[in-house]
Amino acid sequence: MKRLVLSLFALVCATVSFAQQNLVATLTHGDEVSMFYGADAYREAMWKAVHGDVINLSGGAFQAGTIYKALTIRGAGADVEEPTIIVNDFNINISSTTSQRLTLEGVRIANTITVVDTLKDAYFLNCRISAFQPDNKNPVINNGVFVNCVVDDMNFRTHWGEFSSMQFLNSQILCYGPYSSSTPPKSTFINCLIKPEYISNMYCCNVLNSVLISFNDNNPSYPSSSSATNSLLISNKNPFTNALSCVNNKVVPDYSVFVDSDYTKDLTDEAKALYIGTDGTQVGIYGGPMPFSLTPTYPQITKMEVAPKTTADGKLSVNIEVSAAQ
Fold first, then answer.
1. Are strands 246-247 and 24-29 parallel, antiparallel or unpaired?
2. CA distance readout (Å), 210 to 49, 130, 213, 252
3. For 79, which DSSP code?
4. Which of 64, 175, 206, 271 could form a disulfide with 257 if both were Cys (CB 3.0 to 4.6 A apart)?
5. 3-state SS, residue 121
6. How many CB atoms sit inside 10 A of residue 301's CB?
7. If we measure between CA atoms, which residue out of 299, 294, 266 comes closest to residue 80?
8. Residue 127: which of 291, 296, 7 has the closest Cα?
9. pTM of this prediction?
10. Which helix (H) or strand (E) holds 3?
11. Which is nearest to 152 in space by CA: 135, 133, 174?
């Protein structure tokens, strides 16, 4: 219960400070809570933090900094009226010997995340990320997990190290493509929307109950190292004809399966009934175990009223409304 109270306290402080037009980062280390203010607040909190600590960020734009520690970093949301935005490129360079994991939730990454060395068990949730890439020294990403995320660019122009692996659940990957077939990450997509740069370059991918969009290849051929099951491809050509590991996939020539023919929207009612995944729900980001939403899983303060002064007996009236994802 104490940890819940502290987390709520951190969120309250962040919201109050933001309402006062301040940027604030709240660092929670055990029972100790520290507050940092201004555009550099996030970096200052990271400098003081140790593995396993929690940083809560208010809405607003924070300067990026290299992430050296396995922290839980929570924003006010990536798609809210006042989102938490981390600006400028930054690296993730966490020692692989730590037992904690990096968790990044409810933030909008305005520039590029570059992974250095080995990153294991990192968890990205309800985030918008402009670009995600390895550095030029073949780093390893081991069991990186993306849930309810939007990634604009995951087109790897350099190599991941051998044995890299990633999982994507109910996420939108709007540009995907390994640099080559030599050491591609083993990537699993479940109920995702994927726009590969070239579908013929989707090496070592396991695609399930997802929607793919590809009009780039003149002679597309789905790689033999990959599988696709109960998925929908938006394309004017069928790349699955020679792939033995592709089962029960459908190909349609245009965007008519989406509401208003807009792939950023949900499937039409007709398409939902026609294109069904292995679990009995619609294919794509709004089906499956965790239908797409950028709403953070932790409580968000939606309304707070504080009386201008205390009562005669020294009490202060505070009215708080809190919402959370279901």
1. unpaired
2. 38, 21, 10, 14
3. S
4. 271
5. coil
6. 18
7. 294
8. 296
9. 0.87
10. helix 2-19
11. 174
